[in-house]
Amino acid sequence: MAASTAAALTSTAFLTNKKDLDVAAFSSSLPFSYRRCERTVSKKICSVMTPQQSERKPSASGSVKTAMTMTEKIFAKASQKTELSPGENVWVDVDVLMTHDVCGPGSIGIFKKEFGENAKVWDREKVVIIPDHYIFTSDERANRNVDILRDFSKEQNIKYFYDIKDLSDFRVNPDYKGVCHVALAQEGHCRPGEVLLGTDSHTCTAGAFGQFASGIGNTDAGFILGTGKSLLKVPPTLRFVMDGEMPDYLLAKDLILQIIGEISVSGATYKAMEFIGTTIESLTMEERMTLCNMVVEAGGKNGVIPPDSTTFKYLEDKTTKPFEPVYSDANARFLSEYRFDVSKLEPVVAKPHSPDNRALARECKDVKIDRVYVGSCTGGKTEDFLALAKVFHAAGKKVKVPTFIVPATQKVWMDLYSIPVPGAGGKTCSQIFEEAGCDTPASPGCAACLGGPRDTYARMNEAQVCVSTTNRNFPGRMGHKEGQIYLASPYTAAASALTGYVTDPREFLQ
Amino acid sequence: MAASLFLSQSPIAISTPRSSPSISLLSSPQTLKFRSSHSNFLFNLSIAVSHAPSRLATIIPRATASPSSTAFHGLCYVVGDNIDTDQIIPAEYLTLVPSNPSEYEKLGSYALIGLPSSYSTRYVESEEMKTKYSIIIAGDNFGCGSSREHAPVALGASGAVAVVAESYARIFFRNSVATGEIYPLESETRICEECKTGDVVTIELAESRLINHTTGKEYKLKPIGDAGPVIEAGGIFAYARKTGMISS
Predict the structure, then answer these.
(1) Beta-sheet strands, E only, within B67-199
(2) Does A215 touch chain B (CB under 8 A)?
(3) What's the CATH code, domain A353-509?
(4) How far is B58 from chain A, CA to nearest CA, in Å?
(5) What is the pLDDT of residues B97-132, one digit of tens each?
(6) By the 8 A CB rule, do A19 and B225 touch?
(7) Which CATH number is associated with domain A96-343?
(8) Which terms in the Gene Ontology molecular function aspect does this entry carry (chain A) (predicted)?
(9) Chain A residues close to B97, C-beta within 8 Å
(10) What confidence category does residue A148 fall into, taking pLDDT thresholds of 50, 70 and 90?
């Protein structure tokens, strides 16, 4: 498969600036000032302010002095600068801070400790709190963590808190969404040109909307809760040019597994990954999300896709907030450029225990499997299930291994029961899954993607072999340490469920 | 003066703090780790002291001490490449909230419990809260995977003071500095193949050097640079207060 070529283009200087957190910015010559807070709410911390700038609008596109990439432009805009280069540390204004039940309580704890018990968050409309990880469990600490989120949201009058109170039936909780990264998109929190930070490494998913989106820890999140700002280093960008017609047996998951296999699990560490090309232009928003979702599996700081008519159409009924898309300049500098002829690619999997352990699906046809898992922020969106259903319908057979269906969000769950699968005579996903002998679609959430508490639905409690549409196949990721996880596209997952072996979906799709 | 405080067991920690930290802490029978829990502290002394004969005592001067005065001495625990955050702290323990002191301690007891069974020696023995190994030596891309701050916190809470890896995943490195839980140091060569779990090592921060006393070999580390003082202070908030960036 010589479909990809890599060419290092420019800039060795970028390579030397390796650390993301260059604390030089903290030392004497500070690029910002801080002043005493006038408000009484928080006495402990003064807000961190960027210095006064002359009134100059950052260049968005067109005639510019310094050519910049999309990511550099978003950083420039968010830090009120006209130009920036990779390696610079800047204080950026955060447009949206997302947190969930696993890291929210810790972030809140740090916020309260550092800013005071009575402190208020910097903007109650910019904090989005989404319980999604450990919801349908009897684990008391997990339940308590959701209570902490609820109390905090109430106390702070957080505008976007997607609560769940009745765990016996998620459907009686209209506010409950499910997996944060999918919910963020569905609820209109992802907007081109903005900065979205979240206490979850897969926050990078939102790069599909042409924004800067990245994962952070509790301490950074605690700081942002109080100030709305974060000190970030401008990453250099790797560019991935994906051209060619996408064969109908491939999905975005195949593309990103192909790329990670190419550059390794640390190939994009500290770097932005920008995806362009005719194939990318042809992808739906959900497929673009799959692509950007897994950039962190290559170590990437963020993934980003230029917004286009597909993006704007998706956003039409989701947000009324104005946004300003940005695009890489024609002569912007990229650390390297990788080119793929997508028409020549084949379905791939990542073998245990690393997302870069790539193999062709057909090369693994002798790997006997015990179960198939379809879910998560990566592979639990509506279109992932439509793809699954398409293969099941085309095959007209029953699955040979237990097949677990976990919709990412409540909306996805509803889609499974309402949207007719194209070419399936009006049948819905849920009907097709039932006929194929899959498990009944579970309550939406992160579920067994990351193992979780012992009673988590579909958690791998034995040393089994699983084909999964999720994002990580580290040892123990889905529960059992000796479990073996093959990461695959929904097509490959469906084909594998039907045979009981890792299977190339072309066996059923052609 | 702190140098005379270490009597007991080897391996011990060595340091020459220039400040005068409150040494009464050392008389505590508990294993202590003080963090920047109060905003008005002048310095932050981080101590993982133990009393049991088999354990190690480590003192790290923070605040006024410059890196030149800091050295870590102890047993090392050696792991390979791509040690992800699920191995450092599996997701089932993420219900523990790091900012809650008792849960912080518990997180420490689960540090590196997700390593596969091919690691015959456990990092933290079962029933123990602390590790014997204050220094972790690793290969490439340590801390890859999730953004869970529980990962550096679990290591710090277990008694680890430094990781020496060939490289780090970005978020783990940042979280280590932001929390001040551990020093994420980088080696210039692949040390993880030349050290064995249980070897006695010393890290001299100012010299950017790691000495393996068991094998007698010395290795060059990459300088920790400006991240050093932040970790010394006990994290980004503590550092910001100490340097007057934010009021105390």
Answers:
(1) 71-78, 133-137, 162-165, 183-187
(2) yes
(3) 3.30.499.10
(4) 25
(5) 999 999 999 999 999 999 999 999 999 999 999 999
(6) yes
(7) 3.30.499.10
(8) 3-isopropylmalate dehydratase activity; 4 iron, 4 sulfur cluster binding; metal ion binding
(9) 105-106, 109, 145, 148
(10) very high
- Which tokens belong to B213? 């006393």
Domains A96-343 and A353-509 fall in the same CATH topology: yes
> Would the CB atoms of A451 and B245 count as touching at under 8 Å?
no
CA distance A235 to A85: 8
Domain boundaries B75-225, CATH class? alpha beta
- Strand-pair partners of A460: A479
Q: Is A33 left (phi over 0), alpha (psi -120 to 50) or beta?
A: beta
Put simply, whether A452 touches B (Cβ < 8 Å) is yes
Which residues of chain A neighbour B102 with C-beta distances below 8 Å? none
Amino acid A234 reads V
Q: Is the Cβ pair A134, B95 closer than 8 Å?
A: yes
Domains of chain B, by residue range, sit at 2-72+237-242, 75-225
Please give the interface size between A and B, counted as residue pairs whose CB atoms are below 8 Å apart.
Answer: 177
Which residues of chain B neighbour A24 with C-beta distances below 8 Å?
Answer: 225-226
- State the DSSP string of B191-213: GGGT--TT-EEEEETTTTEEEET
B39: pLDDT strictly greater than 50? no
Instruction: Note whether A203 contacts B149, CB cutoff 8 Å.
Output: no
By the CB < 8 Å criterion, does A461 face chain B?
Answer: no
pLDDT of B245:
86
Does pTM surpass 0.90?
no
pLDDT greater than 70 at residue B51: no
For A219, which of B90, B96, B179 is closest by C-beta distance?
A: B179
Chain A positions in Cβ-Cβ contact with residue B145 (cut-off 8 Å): 201, 296, 472, 474
All structural domains of chain A with their residue ranges: 96-343, 353-509
Half-sphere exposure of A357 (CA within 13 A, CB side): 16
Residue A15, CB-side half-sphere exposure with 13 Å CA sphere: 8
| Contact criterion met (CB below 8 Å) for A262 and A6 | yes
Q: Does A505 touch chain B (CB under 8 A)?
A: no
Residue in A with minimal Cα distance to B37: A113
